[in-house]
Amino acid sequence: MRFGESLTDVEMSPYKFIAHIDRLKALSEGRDIFPVTVEIDLVDYCNHSCGWCVDPVHRNNSLDAGIVCQLLSELKELGVKGIVYKGGGEPTLHDSFTTVLEETKRLGFEVGIVTNGSRLQELHGAIVKNADYLRVSIDGPTADSHARLHKSNDFDEVIAGVRYAVMLKKSLGQRHPVIGLSFAMDHQMVDLVGDALILGDSLGVDYILLRPPFYEEVGRPAGMSTEQKTALLCAFERERASYAGKMEVFIDYWLSDSDVNELSSAGESPRRGSYVRPGVNGIEHVTGKCLASPLMAVIAADRKVYACCNLRFLDEWNVGTINYDTGDTFEKLWHGDRRKQVMDRIHQVECIRFCTHPMSRYNEVIEYLRSPRYHEGFV
Ligand SMILES: C[S@@+](CC[C@H](N)C(=O)[O-])C[C@H]1O[C@@H](n2cnc3c(N)ncnc32)[C@H](O)[C@@H]1O
Description:
With 379 residues, this protein is of the alpha/beta class. It has a single domain (25-369), classed as Aldolase class I (TIM Barrel, Alpha-Beta Barrel), CATH 3.20.20. 33% of the residues lie in helices and 12% in strands. The protein has twelve helices and ten strands. It has a ten-stranded mixed β-sheet. Helix 1 (21-28) packs across helix 12 (360-370) and helix 2 packs parallel to helix 3. The two termini are 28 Å apart. The structure holds S-adenosylmethionine. S-adenosylmethionine is lined by residues 46, 50, 52-55, 86-87, 90, 114-116, 137, 139, 182, 184, 211, 213-214, 218.
C-alpha cells in the first residue's frame, strides 16, 4: 500500500491538527476564532430509542429548511469548513434532508453524516454523492442485540442500506464518503465483538469503531464496573489483533468516571488530576482547562447554539438562539455577552462532569503551544 491510500495517513491522521494550526495558535494566545466544524441538528427526534443515548431528551423540533440555508451561507462567510448532521436525534428524518445535504455540498463544505441507518436504503444515493463521511451507528452487531439496544426491528434494512452505499461508492470509484460502522457496546455484548468485525468486513466498509458507551457524562447511572469495562476493552483488542482484513478497526479508549473508585462529588469528575496517556482520558482533568472548544459549535433543532457537543440540551450552557428576523445571527451570538460568560466557565472546565473529551487532542496541542519552548532547537 502506498502512503496516502490509508485512512490513517490522511482522513484520520494524528497530524490533522496541523491543518488548523493558525486557529490553535490563536486560541493558545487567548484570541477567539470561528469554528472549523459546526454540528447542525436538523431534528431533535428519533425513530430508535437507544438505552444509553447521549441525547438525553428527544422533542419535536425540526429546523426549517430555509433557516438551514441561511445558516449555511452565514457559516460559509465565517470560514467554517465542515458541517456534521448527526446529533439531537436522527438527522435523516428531516423532511428536506436531501435538499439540505445538496445545498451543504454546493456551498463547498465538507459534510459528515452520523445516522442510525434506518433511511439509508432510500437515501444512500444522495449521501454517496454529497457526503465526505458516513458513519452508521449499529451498536448491536446481530439482529437481536441491535433490537435490544435500539429498541427497533430494522436491522436487516439498516444493513441493506449500508450495503447499497458501499456498492454505489465502489462502483463510482470514489474515495469518499468514508463509510464506517460504530459499535457502542456494553459488557453484555462482550461475546459479540467478533460479530462486529465480521459484519463490517462482509459489508466492505472502510472502518469500524468499537467503543464502550458513556454513562455518567450523559446523565445516566454508571452501566459497567471497571472489571467489565476492562474485559470489554480486552475483547476489542483481541478481535482487532486477530483480524487480517482490509478495513481499519479503531478502538475508543474512553475512560469513564466509573473507572475510578472514589465517589463523584457534586459537579466535579472524580478523575480530576488523573491522566493515563495522551488522547485517552482527557488532559482537561490535569490542566483544569479547555481552551479548544471554539473549534466546534452545535446548533440545535430549536436554533439554540451550544459551544460544545457535550453541552447540547443543557439550557444553562446555551449561548443564545438564532433568529434572523431579529438580527440574532450566529456571528452576533458568537461575539455576544452570553457566550463570553459560558466560555469563561468552559475555560475552567466547570462542565467537566459532562465531558467526553472530544477536544482532548486539540487541548494537548494548545497546552504545548502555551508551554516554554525548551529543546525547540533539536529535531
Ligand atoms: C446520539 S446518535 C445521533 C445520530 C443518529 N441518530 C445515530 O444513531 O447515529 C450519535 C452517535 O452517538 C452514539 N452514542 C449515543 N449514546 C452514546 C453513549 N452513551 N456512549 C457512546 N456513544 C453513544 C451513537 O451510537 C451514535 O453513533
